[in-house]
Amino acid sequence: MNAARTLATARRVLRQLGHDPRTIALMLVVPCVLLTLLKYVFDASPRTYDSAGASLLGIFPLITMFLVTSIATLRERTSGTLERLMSMPLAKADLLGGYALAFGAVAVVQASLATGLSVLLLGLDVTGSPWLLLVTALADAFLGTALGLFVSAFAASEFQAVQFMPAVLLPQLLLCGLFVPRHAMQPVLTGLSDVLPMSYAVDGMGQVVHHGGVTGAFVRDLAVVAGCALLALGLGAATLRRRTP
Amino acid sequence: MNKHAVQATGLRVVRGGRTVLDDLTFAMPRGRITGLLGPSGCGKSTLMRALVGAQAKVTGELTVLDRPAGHRDLRSRVGYVTQAPSVYADLTARQNLEYFAAVLGTPARARAAEVARALHDVDLTSHADALTANLSGGQRGRVSLAVALLGDPELLVLDEPTVGLDPVLRRDLWQLFHRLAEERGTTVVVSSHVMDEAERCHRLLLLRDGRLLADDTPDDLRRRTGAATVEDAFLRLVDEAAAASPLPTKATP
C-alpha cells in the first residue's frame, strides 16, 4: 500500500463526484428530509421517534454508501478502467483505501448534517454524546462501502447492482430491531439477526440513545460493525484480479 | 539487454474451454512498430492482453522487456490501450491524466508537465478541460491513448487505436507512433484489421484463428507471396492455410 496512490485515488473519486452535484445533493439532503418526515410521523409518540430516529441515523449512511459504492465499482469494472489500473503499479489496497477515504469523507458530511439536524432542530433525545452517534454513523458508512464493493463483483449490470440493495439490505432492515425488538421475533429470526451486521449498527445507536458514556455493549457493537466491514473489504479485494479469463 | 522487446515460444491461451491462441512463436524487435493483423475474432486482443499480463490461463513462454509478461516491474514500463476507451467519463481529460500519472508514480511537481506533453502528443490540448463524457468518440479514444503515453513506456500495446477515426487523424496518429519509435525508442504493438495500415508497420504478425500465418516485414511478405499489397498477401496466405487445413464446419447429421 502506498499513501500517495491511495490519496490520489480518493481525490479522483471526489473529483468524479464533484462533476455530479445532483448526486451529492441527493446523498446529503435526502436523509435530512426523511428524518424530518419521521419526526412528524411519530408526532404523537416522541419516545418512538427517539429510538427509530437514532436507528435511522445509522441505517441511512449504510444504505447510501452501499448504493454509491456498488455502482461506482461496477462502473470501474465495466468501463475498463479497473483493467487499466490493474495493469499499472496500483495495489488493490490503494484502490480500496481510496474509495473508503473518499466515501468516508462524504459520510462524515452526511452524518454530521443528519445528526446535527436531529439533535439540534428536531429535538432527538439522546442520553449519550452526539459525538458517539457520529462515530457510529461513520462505522456504518464504512460497512456500507465495504458491502457495496463486495456485492458489485456479482453484478453484471447497473440493474443488477441496484437490485442487490433490496436483496442484501432489506432483510437486514427487517431483522435489525427497527420494527420489533430483536428478542421478540420468532427465535430462528432472532438467531439470524444476531449474525447480521446491521443489527449491531442499530444496537450501537440504541446504546448511545439510552446510556451516557461508552458502554461495553457499545464497544462490542462498533467492533462487530468494523470487523464485518473489514471482512467484506477483504472479500471484495479478492474479487479484484489482475488476470481475468 | 535483449534486442527483442517481446519473445514468445509455444504461447497458448485458453478462454472458456476454447483454445484462442495456439502454439505461437514469434519475436518483436525493440524500437520498431509491429502490426498485429487478422480478421476480428482471430485472437489479436487476447494476445495483447497476454502481453500486458491481463490474460489468465496463458501457457508457454512469453517474455516482455526481459521479464515474464505481467511481472510487477513491467507495470510502469508498459502502456496499454484497450479497444474501448478506458477512462473516467465523469472527469476532464486533464483530470484523468493527472490521476493515472499519480498512479504511475510521477512526482507531483513533474505531473503537470507530463500531462501537458501527453495531451500535446495526441493533439487534445484545446479540449483538456472538457468533461470526457462530452467529447466525441475519437477524442475519448485519444484521451485513453494519452494515458498510455504517460511515464514514457518502453512498450506500447495499442488495440485498434485508429478504429472509427477520420483519415486525417489516422495519419496523425501513425506519425505519432513513428515518432515514438524513432525519437523515444518505444516499441509499439498495434492491432488492426484495416490492411492499409499494415503498410505503415515495420513488421507484421498475421493471425488467423489463433494461429500465426506470417511473421515478416511488409516488403518481404509481398515479395514472398508475389502480391501487390499486404491485403492481397494476407488473402493468399489465408486461402493457402484454408486449403491445407479447412476450418471445422458445422457437423451435418
TrEMBL record, chain A:
Membrane topology type: Multi-pass membrane protein
Keyword tags: Antibiotic resistance, Cell membrane, Membrane, Transmembrane, Transmembrane helix, Transport
A GO molecular function held by the record: ABC-type transporter activity
GO terms for cellular component: ATP-binding cassette (ABC) transporter complex
ABC transmembrane type-2 domain mapped to chain residues: 22-243
InterPro entries recorded: ABC-2_transporter_component (IPR051449), ABC2_TM (IPR013525), ABC2_TM_bact-type (IPR047817), ABC_2_transport (IPR000412)
Location(s) in or outside the cell: Cell membrane
Lineage top rank: taxon: Bacteria
Pfam families listed in its UniProt record: ABC2_membrane
Cleaved signal peptide residues: none
Transmembrane regions listed in the UniProt entry: 21-42, 54-74, 95-124, 130-154, 161-180, 222-240
Any single biological process term in GO: response to antibiotic
Family assignment from sequence similarity: Belongs to the ABC-2 integral membrane protein family.
PANTHER family: MEMBRANE COMPONENT OF ABC TRANSPORTER YHHJ-RELATED, TRANSPORT PERMEASE PROTEIN
Protein name: Transport permease protein
Organism of provenance: Actinacidiphila rubida
From TrEMBL, chain B:
Gene3D superfamilies reported in the protein's UniProt record: P-loop containing nucleotide triphosphate hydrolases
PROSITE patterns the UniProt entry points to: ABC_TRANSPORTER_2 (PS50893)
A GO molecular function held by the record: ATP hydrolysis activity
CDD domains named among the record's database cross-references: ABC_DR_subfamily_A (cd03230)
Alphabetical UniProt keywords: ATP-binding, Nucleotide-binding
Top-level taxon of the source organism: Bacteria
Positions of the ABC transporter domain: 6-234
Any Pfam family matching the protein: ABC_tran
PANTHER family on file: ABC TRANSPORTER G FAMILY MEMBER 20 ISOFORM X1 (PTHR43038:SF3), ATP-BINDING CASSETTE, SUB-FAMILY H, MEMBER 1 (PTHR43038)
Protein name listed in UniProt: ABC-2 type transport system ATP-binding protein
Species this chain originates from: Actinacidiphila rubida
